[in-house]
Design a protein that fits this description.
49% of the residues lie in helices and 16% in strands. The protein is of the alpha/beta class. The strands form five sheets. It has a six-stranded mixed beta sheet, sandwiched between helices. A three-stranded mixed beta sheet has the order 11-15-16. Strands 12-13-14 form a three-stranded antiparallel beta sheet. Helix 7 (197-208) crosses helix 13 (391-430) and helix 12 (361-387) runs antiparallel to helix 13 (391-430).
Length: 470
């Protein structure tokens, strides 16, 4: 039989018309059968009004939900009661029995702890003789809260145990924070590389070529340099899962080769220790002494001029001295800078004239398909082995896993080759018409471009050796 669902309004009695704070008398029945068992609206209402007389309460309102289940608090009159409690219109909430409020312990405690107590509303239940206005009533609520907290902690622990088991088996632990470059497959429980994987590879390769995180963000469309730094530090791209500060081998395909990842981490560590100086000098951080290997520095000389010298001859910074007897001379900074720029402009023209091979994505597509087929074969063989254990099946599975590892290594190699092609094209775009736009750039922009192109500048007497990154 279809249940009736009605929300009865409070009776307009002299008590209910009062503008003063009042007691809320809550009544609920979900079926006609409950009415027959003594839970009728009239019976509950009669007992609650009588309790108001016992407590000396004169002002009250009735909140009646007829034909509504107690499995949730989403009931018309219950929602009105909650809103009135938040607006401090209510002094007491009185019900016939706890399950009239809710049959859910979680909802019951939410109603008391998050709605009533913060708004200083007392709670009275006739059947359980609970009255939070008395010491015993508050003790009972405290006990119920303790049990609820225990249940919450048990749920949290069970959830953490489930996630721990997942990561130990190589599955992604879940959650909404899927790393860029992957999609999550609920069916397989693992991460699947997507079209953004190429962006991730570009981030690593461009960083190794000297691009700053913000420059990489501008080139790849990632918007923020901090996002690039997060990508560069994430071990997920090695095929690992980091959970509770421990690393587990995941079942997802890696995007980045271990050697590339290691080199990037070394570069990140190095740059965090020795950041570029805020100096406006063009070649700061690039120059090395060809005699002793120490860094070269700018020094003011005369009116508005600068000279370049070796730190081994600068005795005030002993930790930078490589050879106290270094014969390196001092140089006019303008002459050194002009010689370097002439070579850089010539180099830029050479790079622009070179052809950049387009990435061969079809090569990787075939490998990805073969990897998927191999995974399917391995799963099928495991199923056969579960039905009928056989050593030959285990040997076949082992051979397929070895083949899979070889295909993964080949896939990574091809993907990195494609990324290098994209990266080289990006560098070509960066230095396009460099000699024509150079004078329009700020010193910071000029120096940033030089750091992208140049690994180091070695000066030995009258000889300048420029070591380019590409």
């Amino acid at each position: 039989m279809r249940q009736k669902r009605t929300a009865l309004k409070a009776k307009q009695t002299p008590q209910t018309l009062s503008a003063r704070p009042f007691a809320a008398l809550y009544v609920r029945v979900s079926t006609d059968a409950q009415a027959e068992e003594g839970y009728s609206i009239e019976e509950q209402q009669k007992r609650l009004i009588a309790q108001c007389g016992v407590l000396g309460i004169e002002d009250y309102q009735l909140y009646i939900d007829g034909g509504w289940s107690g499995s949730t608090l989403e009931r018309p009159e219950m929602q009105r009661l909650i809103q009135d409690a938040k607006e401090h219109k209510i002094t007491h909430v009185i019900c016939y029995k706890l399950d009239r409020i809710s049959r859910s312990q979680r909802d019951m405690l939410y109603f008391i702890e998050d709605i009533l107590l913060p708004n200083r509303v007392s709670f009275v239940s006739l059947s359980e003789t609970i009255d939070t206005g008395t010491p015993m009533g508050r003790l009972m609520i405290g006990i119920l809260s303790a049990f609820a907290q225990l249940e919450r902690e048990n749920i949290r622990e069970r959830t953490q145990m489930g996630m721990q088991a997942r990561v130990e088996s190589g599955l992604w632990p879940g959650g909404d924070r899927i790393p860029i470059g992957y999609d999550y497959s609920p069916e397989q429980g693992i991460l699947i590389p997507n079209k953004d994987a190429e962006t991730v590879r570009s981030c690593f390769n461009l960083y190794l070529r000297g691009f700053s995180p913000q420059s990489i963000a501008d080139v790849t469309g990632l918007k923020y340099g901090n996002w690039v730094l997060q990508i560069l530090s994430r071990k997920t791209y090695l095929g690992l899962i980091v959970f509770r500060d421990r690393e587990y081998r995941g079942k997802h395909l890696p995007i980045i080769d271990e050697d590339i990842f290691r080199r990037v981490q070394e570069r990140l560590t190095q740059r965090s220790v020795t950041r570029l100086s805020s100096s406006k000098s063009l070649l700061t951080g690039l120059m090395k002494c060809g005699h002793c290997g120490a860094s070269l520095y700018y020094q003011s000389w005369g009116k508005g001029k600068k000279k370049i010298g070796c730190y081994s001859r600068q005795k005030s910074k002993k930790y930078l001295v490589k050879d106290p007897d270094c014969p390196q001379a001092y140089y006019n900074s303008e002459e050194i800078e002009q010689a370097v720029l002439n070579d850089v402009f010539h180099f830029a023209l050479e790079v622009q004239s070179q052809d950049c091979a387009a990435p061969y994505s079809f090569r990787t597509d075939d490998l990805v398909k073969n990897l998927e087929l191999t995974d399917t074969k391995i799963k099928r063989l495991y199923g056969l082995y579960a039905d009928s254990p056989d050593e030959i099946l285990l040997e076949t599975i082992s051979d397929l896993k070895q083949t899979r590892r070889q295909m993964e290594a080949r896939l990574l190699k091809l993907q990195n080759e494609d990324s290098l092609s994209v990266m080289r094209k990006d560098i070509q775009d960066t230095i396009s018409n460099l000699d024509q736009i150079w004078d329009c750039l700020s010193v910071d922009e000029q120096r940033n471009i030089l750091h992208i192109l140049i690994e180091s500048i070695e000066i030995t007497d009258d000889k300048i050796d420029i070591h380019y990154r590409i």
